[in-house]
Amino acid sequence: MKTIALLPALLLLGACSTAQKETATTPPSLKDAFADSFLIGAALNTDCTNGLDPATDSLVSLHFNSIVAENCMKSEKINPSEGVYEWDDADNFVNYGTERGMKIIGHTLLWHSQLAPWFPLDSAGNNVTPDVMKQRIANHISTVMTRYKGKIHGWDVVNEAILEDGSYRKSPFYEILGEEFIPFAFSCAAAADPDAELYLNDYSMASPAKRETYLKIIADLKARGIRIDGIGMQGHMGMDYPDFAEFEKSIEEYGKAGVGVMITEWDMSALPTVNQGANVADTTAFNKLLNPYPDGLPEDIDREWNERMGRMMDMFMRHADVITRVTAWGTDDSKSWKNDWPMKGRTEYPLLFSRSLTPKPFLNKYLNK
Ligand code: XIL
């Protein structure tokens, strides 16, 4: 009798303590901390989205509500030869985000780097004619976007089209089609998926000359009735760049131009600067002196790094009315491309999470608010 009468009470107690335990052990998440301000994203490599990295999966599932493909949607991967598409990794990436209800970002449709070698060339190895280039761009954009129609929140349609001095990069797209390659690409993208957001994305966005050219491009697209939804400011930074005031001015000016602003590839090198910006082709041979902290960041550098990141995050929060997403280019420090760029084999500390998967201190004030 007694035992039976006690049972419901015991069950209830059990349920209570489980619930308490869950509340006590669910750590605060970045996506909740920034829910009223902007999406918070991370670039993922294929280990995570192919199910080979459960620790990163847990971190991403807890903290992020947006993801971008670090490499698997670039043309050399997804469209390595004419008419040949390798979908497996990209499909897994899109399924990963869909299953977790995340805003999925496609990166990137047209980029001079990691460009499939066949793309701009004819069978003799010469640049194709403008007509053939247009056909190839139209096919590539329409095939890739159509496959993921309705699943991708936004696409980096064109990546890194402009140089720091404000001139157009002499990419194969530009060499063959001139400035017109950008409006053409955006028209193709808008036709392929009317519901996906369409972005221009670039690094060194604090450069006033670069800013002026992007403002002109935005105005030109809008004047011609071609849709552009946002500007991605990559946000690859270091301990002595960018100029914070100029970076903030770019956020403001893009906002005023009537497009969404995103920080799309945020990271801040804690190591001596080898070169500013993020031009993937600018690499330097390994030099021990430029890899000063292989066993951990000294306290003063760590403090300074966190202070700079905190100031940046405060800047993003000040402009939450125009900033729609802040995405880190990787998850924890061990996953950053900066361990191998611009110098292979350095130990870097540029991301939001340490190698032990703990959030960096500058995030505490947001996480514990
Ligand atoms: C980087 C990836 O992180 C690396 O794994 C790859 O080897 C090179 O490209 N700007 C971009 C990104 O738009 O696509 C680049 O990603 C980093 C610079």
Round the Cα radius of gyration to an integer and report it.
22 Å
The percent of residues in helical segments reads 25-40%
Bound small molecules, which ones?
(3S,4R)-3-hydroxy-2-oxopiperidin-4-yl beta-D-xylopyranoside
Largest sheet: 8 strands, parallel, barrel
Query: Which parts are unreliable, with pLDDT below 50 for 5 consecutive residues or more?
Result: 1-19
Please tally the helical runs, counting DSSP H or I stretches of 4 or more residues.
Answer: 13
Please give the order of strands in the largest beta sheet: 1-2-3-4-5-6-8-9
Which outline best applies? globular
The chain-level structural class is: alpha/beta
Strand residue percentage = 5-15%
Estimate the mean pLDDT confidence. Answer: 94
Q: What is the N-to-C order of secondary-structure elements (H for helix, E for strand)?
A: HHEHHEHHEHEHHEHEEHEHEH
Please report the distance between the alpha carbons of the first and last residues: 50 Å
Task: Count the beta strands.
Answer: 9
